[in-house]
Amino acid sequence: METKNSALHLIPVPLTGSTTSYLSTESIETAHKITHFIVENAKSARLFLKSINHPTPLQSIEIEIITDKPKENWQWVKSILEKGLDVGILSEAGLPAVADPGNEIVKIAHQNLCKVITHSGPNSMITALMASGMNGQQFIFHGYLPAKKEQLREKLIQIVKSHNYPNFTHIFMETPYRNKQVMEIIFNNVPNSYLLSISANLHTKDEINYCKTIAQWKVFDSSIFLDAPAIFCFTKN
Amino acid sequence: METKNSALHLIPVPLTGSTTSYLSTESIETAHKITHFIVENAKSARLFLKSINHPTPLQSIEIEIITDKPKENWQWVKSILEKGLDVGILSEAGLPAVADPGNEIVKIAHQNLCKVITHSGPNSMITALMASGMNGQQFIFHGYLPAKKEQLREKLIQIVKSHNYPNFTHIFMETPYRNKQVMEIIFNNVPNSYLLSISANLHTKDEINYCKTIAQWKVFDSSIFLDAPAIFCFTKN
């Protein structure tokens, strides 16, 4: 493919309750020059473009939705790149392609020798890891653990018993309404000596980070975490 | 411990060649109010404080070095917090406590019920993962893989053969002068069908991100990566 020096730009969108102030001047200047975006959510994409005062009228900016058919998405991206224009990729919130859609398009872009350029932004799982005080040299990010009780229980036991990655920090996300149930299953299946940290409302003024042993959590009033968007980290102590 | 509402702030320092423009106004305002820092490197810490135009004269700012004795470090941190003052923790570059020193102090802080507050900044491994196009929902960060040839070979074979985390992306760092040797060992021990991405000079204008199958890498001139600070990601394709 001949991309005439055009590129696919991975641009972070603010997390809920956050601002765009993390974007460097260079990243904002780059985003201002891009008029074609492939996005997870059109509404949040337009809000983002408005928040960075994009100089092109929103109705003149072409927005394509990321679907579960990355090859078709790539055809659209390719058609823009072949005109010598850049394409921006935006997820609904946070970094595109990290625990969010977009990576399949990036993968095809590489196979077509398209230039891929990143822009930095906050990432909840890394922030939660930093806040936990656990091993930040070696860790496993599991995404979402199984939703069903019995499968979650089995998964936790498998992680605790595994000898392959003994001192790694384990990180996972959960949907807020399930926090209470997940905490109960962790308390009942992870040894008392293990450390568990819960970080909620990250990148907002209401951020909370607690790290305790399972034994300490069992006697702690953890109701502050109910229904809050949270990241969990746990590790052998 | 009674911390009188004081807190331990985890503050990111720019990566080589980068600027502090990622720091939010709120983070800079917070850093301006802190006059006690525990840091990986005093010189880079002073450069950082200068770059954010810290209003207190540098000679009046107390800087303690992070050692391999976290309990002693904590005694210093605790003595400041007990005065009702905040403490900032800075690594040499990047996020403190993530692939950098500081996490042991954070861990003790939590056990002493000290408030831990994070500030966002760029992180090379997450940026490399985003740029790779690989699975960003599930991944393992290995830190540095073994330095010795035979141990590195064994580790790679173990990762490839492991059935516990079949579709996870594997991420590791390497010191620049070892890139050539590491690439050779990967090419010889990871299946041709696997995807390998190499990201170098991240968060600078010279950033490069390539993702190819091992078979494609074998016939690609990868000399651009020699001696560049790089992050490697690989996964089953």
Annotate the secondary structure layout.
The structure is a homodimer of 237-residue chains.
Chain A: E1 7-10, H1 25-33, E2 36-39, H2 42-51, E3 62-65, H3 70-81, E4 87-90, H4 103-111, E5 115-118, H5 124-132, E6 139-144, H6 149-161, E7 169-174, H7 179-189, E8 195-200, E9 208-213, H8 214-218, E10 230-235
Parallel strand pairs in A: 1-4, 1-5, 2-3, 2-4, 6-7
Antiparallel strand pairs in A: 7-10, 8-9, 8-10
In a nutshell, what does this entry contain?
Chain A has 237 residues and is α/β, with parallel strands linked by helices. Chain A is 33% helix and 21% strand. In chain A, strand 2, helix 2 (42-51) and strand 3 (62-65) form a beta-alpha-beta unit.
Protein model, in words:
Two copies of one chain form a homodimer. Chain A has helices at 25-33, 42-51, 70-81, 103-111, 124-132, 149-161, 179-189, 214-218, and strands spanning 7-10, 36-39, 62-65, 87-90, 115-118, 139-144, 169-174, 195-200, 208-213, 230-235. The first copy, chain A, is α/β, with parallel strands linked by helices. Chain A folds into two domains: 7-118, Tetrapyrrole methylase, N-terminal domain (Cobalt-precorrin-4 Transmethylase, domain 1), CATH 3.40.1010.10; 124-235, Tetrapyrrole methylase, C-terminal domain (Methyltransferase, Cobalt-precorrin-4 Transmethylase, Domain 2, 2-Layer Sandwich), CATH 3.30.950. In chain A, strands 3-2-4-1-5 form a five-stranded parallel β-sheet, with helices on one face. In chain A, strand 6 (139-144), helix 6 (149-161) and strand 7 (169-174) form a beta-alpha-beta unit. In chain A, helix 3 (70-81) crosses helix 4 and helix 6 packs across helix 7 (179-189). Chain A is elongated. The N and C termini of chain A lie far apart (51 Å). The mean pLDDT of chain A is 92. Chains A and B meet through helix 4, strand 5, helix 5, strand 6 and strand 8 of A and helix 4, strand 5, helix 5, strand 6 and strand 8 of B. Strand 6 of chain A pairs antiparallel with strand 6 (139-144) of chain B.
